[in-house]
Amino acid sequence: MADDAFLFLLHERHPRLGAALAAVGDLECSETPAVHGRLQAHGVSASSEEVRILPFDAAEFIPEGAEQLPIPLSPDETVRVEQACAPRSVPTWRPTEAASAEVWSTAVTNAGCTQR
């Protein structure tokens, strides 16, 4: 295993970056003295939303001054971290024909127009 991710604390004044450690699921490194010590030193638990993880190649997004701890991941854990940190797609909404007709009818009525 190599250093495949960074664990860091992200306080509320920053936008949520990466994924919460708890959202990734159990990681082998979570049980190491280094991780336990870092969390205890900051008075947070591993389930806190402040404890974030980012893949190694996204380290430039970690806010300046944030303490970061490089952590090793197994190949399976690396995939889970990458998936948890990936941007979510935005669903597109396409109205049905009936919904379009209802919206048009409501707009016409609200505009004070009459239908012929």
Keywords:
116 residues; alpha+beta; 4 helices
Topology, pairings included?
Layout: E1 3-9, E2 19-20, H1 21-24, H2 33-42, E3 51-55, E4 68-72, H3 75-85, H4 97-110
Antiparallel strand pairs: 1-3, 1-4, 2-3
InterPro entries: DUF6003
Pfam families: DUF6003 (PF19466)
Can you put this structure into words, describing what you see?
With 116 residues, the chain is α+β, with helices and mostly antiparallel strands. It has one domain (3-85). Helices cover 34% and strands 16% of the residues. The chain is built from 4 helices and 4 strands. The chain has helices at residues 21-24, 33-42, 75-85, 97-110; strands spanning 3-9, 19-20, 51-55, 68-72. It has a 4-stranded antiparallel β-sheet with strand order 2-3-1-4. The protein is elongated, with a radius of gyration of 23 Å. The model has no long low-confidence stretch (mean pLDDT 82).
The first-to-last residue Cα distance is: 73 Å
**Overall mean pLDDT:** 82
Helix content: 25-40%
Alpha-beta classification: alpha+beta
The proportion of strand residues reads 15-25%
H and E string: EEHHEEHH
For the largest beta-sheet, the strand count, sense and barrel status come to:
4 strands, antiparallel
Task: State the gist of this model.
It is built from four helices and four strands; from the N terminus they run ββααββαα.
